[in-house]
Design a protein that fits this description.
Elements lengths: L9 H14 L5 H13 L6 H6 L3 H8 L14 H8 L4 H11 L3 H25 L8 H12 L2 H13 L4 H14 L3 H12 L7 H13 L3 H8 L5 H5 L2 H10 L3 H12 L4 H17 L3 H14 L4 H13 L3 H12 L6 H13 L3 H14 L4 H14 L3 H14 L4 H13 L5
Helix pairs in contact: 1-2, 2-7, 4-5, 5-7, 6-7, 6-8, 7-8, 8-9, 9-10, 10-11, 10-12, 11-12, 12-13, 15-16, 15-17, 16-17, 17-18, 17-19, 18-19, 19-20, 19-21, 20-21, 21-22, 21-23, 22-23, 23-24, 24-25
């Protein structure tokens, strides 16, 4: 069955997606098929079928202008009808972005099929019936759909026109900047934004945000901070709070960093608020307020007892307090969360080495390197273990050399490499 067929139903899509995923050896194909399709619809995965099955026939008919024989079954409800009924106009944009970012080849093909299907539905149904370029917002929506399918020839001029007419605010500006980044035309984007800003004695908040983002992308973090901190609207400024916290932390302005982290904890998505809380805990630790840091991290763990970053961070704090048993407990929990992350194994190795369990430490460092063969801390720690504690100099030399390919300016490691080479007879 052709996925772009107007008669392709939700049930058909789920079935075809599951068959494809099975053919590519993907685990839990039924679940992943639902997840992929839920992206296309802009729905929560667990909510997909319940929303489809709960769709009122009258609502669907009213949205379509009446006349269609629409049932509430997920197996017969047409995708275009579902999109139209629930007003999921941004869905094509979200799924297209997700498809571009997705790294796994075996999933990308089906995601691209979903992109074609959804964007096709928009152009066939929504653009024809909903988008009037003369209506405020019409230009931006049309341009964003062109962005979703990568049509820069028509889309970039259309988006520039929308911005020049004052449509879309920050959303239009960020779409434009991201498009210029994708095309490798950052300077063109910068020139366009700065030309717009020059028309105002005091640039409005959306332009300040865009100018700050361009500076950030270029690595000029002080300039980015100076633009973002001029934004008058606190909700708009909150979009950049995490970046501002990190910029100020890296420049040693810890009070400013703390303030912006707290702003971030009160704005944005749940994921953004979690990241701001982790940042605040790190800043508290840097300021010596470890009890406050642990309190923030424990609040994160109340929401998710298997949060890797929170468990690992408390473990590091306990190490700093010279509580190796507590530290080991947290690192061990971090390694049991199911995330293939090297940090927990590496830190657990440090605890075991400090307790004299060199074989146990070796095992944990090797697990860290199994998760990431280029994880520099584990390379260095295993080299130190072989060099200083186990007398396995040849193996230490190879690890030091690999580590120094990643961190070539580490003078301490350079010194220890030479010492190991002398211990091994200078043979490597």
């Amino acid at each position: 069955m052709d996925p772009s067929s107007p008669g392709m139903s939700i049930g058909d899509l789920l079935y075809q997606g599951e068959k494809y995923l099975v053919s590519r050896g993907i685990e839990e194909p039924s679940l992943n098929s639902k997840i992929l399709l839920s992206h296309a619809l802009g729905l929560e995965g667990d909510d997909l079928l319940s929303k489809l099955n709960g769709a009122a026939k009258a609502e669907s008919e009213e949205a379509f202008g009446g006349g269609q024989d629409v049932t509430a079954s997920g197996a017969t409800l047409d995708l275009k009808q579902a999109l139209f009924t629930w007003g999921k106009i941004p869905a094509a944009i979200r799924v297209a972005r997700s498809g571009r970012m997705l790294a796994e080849d075996e999933l990308r093909l089906y995601r691209q099929t979903a992109v074609r299907l959804v964007t096709g539905a928009f152009f066939d149904v929504l653009l024809a019936r909903e988008i009037d370029p003369e209506v405020r917002g019409g230009l931006l929506l049309h341009a964003k759909l062109l962005y979703a399918i990568g049509d820069e020839k028509e889309g970039v001029p259309l988006l520039s026109e929308a911005i020049s007419k004052g449509e879309g605010g920050a959303e239009a500006l960020y779409t434009y900047i991201n498009w210029m980044e994708r095309l490798g035309r950052r300077q063109e984007g910068t020139d366009f934004i700065e030309k717009l800003a020059a028309e105002f004695p005091d640039p409005p908040d959306d332009l300040l945000g865009a100018m700050g983002w361009l500076a950030f992308l270029s690595g000029d973090y002080p300039k980015a901070a100076s633009k973002w901190e001029k934004i008058a609207d606190q909700a708009e400024a909150g979009r950049y709070s995490l970046y501002l916290a990190r910029i100020h932390k890296n420049t040693g302005e810890l009070q400013k960093a703390e303030n912006w982290s707290k702003v971030g904890m009160g704005s944005g998505s749940e994921g953004d608020r979690r990241l701001a809380a982790l940042e605040l805990a790190d800043i508290y630790t840097a300021r010596g307020r470890v009890s406050a840091a642990v309190g923030v991290l424990e609040d994160i763990l109340k929401q998710n007892p298997e949060d890797f970053e929170a468990l690992n961070a408390i473990g590091l704090i306990e190490m700093g307090k010279e509580n190796p048993k507590k530290a080991g407990d947290y690192f061990r929990k971090a390694t049991e969360t199911g995330e293939a992350r090297p940090e927990g194994w590496n830190n657990l190795g440090l605890v075991l080495r400090a307790s004299g369990d060199h074989k146990g430490a070796e095992e944990k460092y090797k697990k860290a390197l199994a998760a990431d063969p280029n994880f520099a801390p584990a390379l260095k720690n295993l080299a130190i273990l072989y060099d200083k504690y186990m007398g396995r100099f040849s193996e230490a030399i190879a690890l030091y050399e690999n580590y120094l390919k990643i961190r070539p300016t580490d003078e301490e490691a350079q010194k220890w490499l030479k010492a190991s080479q002398r211990q091994a007879g200078g043979g490597q």
